[in-house]
Give the backbone structure.
Amino acid sequence: MNILVNLPDGFFTHPDLTDAFARLATLGTVRKTSHNRAEEIAGDLAWADAVLMWSWPLLTDDLLDGAPKLAYRGHLDINQQGARIALARGVPASVSRAGFSPAVAEMALALILSTLRRVSDYHAQMRSGDEPWVKAFPGDIDRRERELTGRSVGVVGFGRVGRRLGELLAPFGCALNVVDPFVPDAVLEQFPTATRRDLRPMLEASDVVVLCAAANEGTRHLLGREEIALLRPDGVLVNVARAALVDTDALVDRLKRGDLFAALDVFDREPLEPTSPLRALPNAYLTPHRAGGVIASVRRCVGWLVDDLEAALEGRPPQHPLTESMLPSLDEK
């Protein structure tokens, strides 16, 4: 079997992925490439019986017509366009994007706690030497510094990330306000404090709102100016999903009022421009798109694709198949 692995160069040299590539080598002849464009991958794809890759370059019908031997494809992630093409052609495909979910959910929890308890503020103040030591306790307590326990948390998108976040929030006794038209009732019933809500009632009812949904036609600017105005005074907005879910200009305007906190891991343009107004807002807590970026995520994502390729060769069902039901949870592009 000819196995094409098309991933960024760093995957091939990282010591934590050595075992996964060694397993692949026992299954066939492995060719490692880092193509970004269709014209680059075409020749190698024609050679391959199986391909493991991220979501780019998009495997169009033209490319796949030129790869008649391709019998399996595994993706770390895939967008709606690529998924529809794959499903229509009927070649077995796996998607391991859920391997990022545990880390993303943990980052969401970290950002919630850090924002409510002003952890990064205190860290920066200690570094600069102007930290506010207690002088008139409890009168000098900032009422905007709050505990998470017992707070209401809105979750937009209750897929793998949202559900794992729900599990992590359980010890805090948080009421979960879930916005997701696709999540089955049977799933929500596994979370005793969860209630299905429409978007606007959720915004009005939640102390913390966490965005975990994909960016597609149905979610672009899900939080526009009117929705952002509904967020509670001194509420917390966390985005570990996609920047396109939020009208950034409207968010900046609300943040400038000083009555909202936002913790953002994703941005309209990345890297974030040095001149972005978000950088100057003390109530905007920013991280450079690192939510899923721990090596455990990468090991899971690559390892699961190798598992599913082995399963395909042995006639067993895959554990992470691409299915029609996944489409609403995928980014449009």
User: Anything to note?
Assistant: The chain has a mean pLDDT of 97. Residues 295-314 form the longest helix (20 residues).
